[in-house]
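To fix ideas, we quote verbatim a fold written out as C-alpha cells:
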Amino acid sequence: MAEPIEEGIFREIDEELRNEQFAKLWKNYGKFFVIGVGIIVAAVAGYKAWQSYDLSSRGQQGENFAKSLRLAQSGNEEAALDALKALNNEAGSGYRMLSSFKAAALMSDQGDGAGARAAYDKLAGDTSLQSVYRDLAVLLGAVQGMNAGDDKADLTARLTPLSTGNNPWRHSARELLAILAEQSGDKSKALELFKALSEDPAAPQGIRQRAGEMSSALAE
C-alpha cells in the first residue's frame, strides 16, 4: 500500500494531468521528489559517515549535525545553515558531504535555487566522493534546474548518463527525463519512458505507480 504522501502525489498527478496542466504538476510534485531523494541521501551518507571515523570524532560530528537538524526543524534555518557551514569546515569527508547535501536542501527550501544548484554542482564535481554521491548531486541539481526553467536539452544531457546500466539512480533519472520530454513537446518519448518505468519490476514502487499514472494520462 502506498504511503500517505505518495497517495497525495497520485491524486495531484491524476487531477493535474486530466486538466493538462503538466507544468503546475511538476511545480507541486517536484518538491516531493526532492524529499524522497533527501531521505535516501540522509541514510546512505549517514552510513558513510559512520563507517569513516573513530568513535569520539564520529560522536562529536554526529551531535553537531543533529544540532543543525534541530535548528532547521524549529524553523531557524539561517542558524542551521551557519551550523552546517561550520561543520563542513571542520568535519571529515563523511559529515562534510552530508552537511553539504543538507545545506543545499535548506537553501532550496528557502527559495535560493541558485545557491542550491551551486552546492549540488560542487558536490557533483568533487572527485573525492564516490560516484553514487556525485551522481545523486547531479540528479538533485537537475531538479533545481527544472524548477528554474533551465535549458531542457542541457538537463537531458546531464541526466542521460545516470539513466543507463545499473546506475543506482537510473529510475529517478528516467522519470525526470520523461518529464523533460513531455515539457519539450515530445509526447511519444515521454510516453515511452513512463510506460517502460511502469513495467520495470526493478523500479521502486512509487516511481512505477507515478509512471503508470503519467502514461495513462498521456495515452488519452
The chain is about 80% helix and 0% strand. The mean pLDDT is 75.
